[in-house]
Amino acid sequence: MPIEGCNGRTAFLFSAGAAPHPGTGRELRDAFPVFADALDAICARLDPYLELPLACVMFADDGTRTAALLDRESYGGPAVFALQVAQYRLLRSWGVRPDAVFGQAAGRMAAAYAAGVFSLAEACHAVGTLARLLDGLPAPRRPHSPRLDGVLDAYGRTLATLHPCVPHLPLVSDVTARPVGTETAEPEFWVRRAPARFAEAVGLLHREGIRTWLELGPSDRLTRLLPDCLPGATASAFALSRDWAELWSGPGSEPGTAPR
Predict the structure, then answer these.
(1) In sequence order, which ranges of the chain are alpha helices (DSSP H)?
(2) 210-216 and 236-239: which strand pairing?
(3) Is residue 258 part of a domain?
(4) Residues whose CB falls within 8 Å of the CB of residue 75, separated by 6 or more in sequence, listed in order
(5) Long-range contacts, stretch 139-142, CB < 8 angstroms, 24+ apart
(6) Do residues 107 and 15 make contact, with C-beta atoms less than 8 angstroms apart?
(7) Structural domain includes residue 51
(8) CB neighbours of 113 closer than 8 A, spacing ≥ 6?
């Protein structure tokens, strides 16, 4: 794999931003059983919180009313989480391990799962509960509406019932741009709203020896921001949604299997 030849340490970036386009992840699902099995398992955990099965919405035909549900955060958020965790499982099956992780907004919970803060069951419960709460809000939402404040308060009460652990690998916050520690036990940490500090987080990770960046999610949004955040260094940056074939390719690789 190309990533094996890169110098320095590796960070996984769990991006947020726009919801996945209908069909995002279809190529990975068709090519890799590890990804397909992981995605099916995650969707099965999230389906009880949603009116329609998540996979049916994620892979609906573009232009249909079902596919349009991805524009609602009640489906877009779970879709991003399911996609990112399945991508993470796929990378692990390829032998790619992060030295640090960063999660931005909707990518926070997937990054927290990857860092060992939450079990998959607890992460899915948090994501599913938030989706159910958001489903009652009109779209588009005002960023500081009283109803949204009520949703976040209820979400915080759900988070208070979970049992987060201290991260077992560096998890850099998009709010503080610092490694996360015992504050993972504070529900307020996960519902805090503040401008994302991506450039500062990247600077910290670079100073800690990160030289390879791998974005998980439906797009390459963070990968495209990296050149403006790094101190004149050439970054080895990949977005799994865009570069999966390059990352997977290697001598003797066959479709549907992990490289040796």
Answers:
(1) 26-31, 33-46, 54-58, 65-68, 73-93, 108-114, 120-134, 146-159, 187-191, 198-207, 221-225, 240-248
(2) parallel
(3) no
(4) 19, 50, 52, 54, 57, 69, 131
(5) 139/71, 139/72, 139/73, 141/73
(6) yes
(7) yes
(8) 85, 88, 119, 120, 123
The domain of 223 spans 2-248
Q: Could you give the CA distance from residue 204 to residue 175 in angstroms, rounded to a whole number? A: 13
- In the structure encoding, which two tokens stand for residue 231, read together? 């101190």
Would residue 222 count as lying in a domain?
yes
How far apart, in whole angstroms, are the C-alpha atoms of residue 238 and residue 253?
19
Q: Can you tell me the distance from the alpha carbon of 256 to that of 133, in angstroms, rounded to the nearest whole number?
A: 37
Domain count for the chain, please give it: 1
Secondary-structure percent of the chain, ordered helix, strand, coil, rounded to 5: 50, 10, 40
Q: Is residue 144 part of a domain?
A: yes
Write out the two tokens for 147.
């109803």
Q: Report the sign of the C-alpha dihedral through residues 172, 79, 218, 151, in that order.
A: negative
Secondary structure class of 73 (helix, strand, coil): helix
Domain CATH code at residue 41: 3.40.366.10
Spatial separation of the C-alpha atoms in residues 57 and 90, rounded to whole Å? 22
Under DSSP, the state recorded for 179 is B
Q: How would you write the pLDDT of the chain (260 residues) with one tens digit per residue? A: 455 545 679 999 998 766 788 989 999 999 999 999 999 999 999 999 999 999 999 999 999 999 999 999 899 999 999 999 999 999 999 999 999 999 988 899 999 999 999 999 999 999 999 999 988 666 557 555 677 888 889 999 999 999 999 999 999 998 889 999 998 889 888 887 777 889 999 999 999 999 999 999 999 999 999 998 987 766 789 999 999 988 886 433 443 343 32
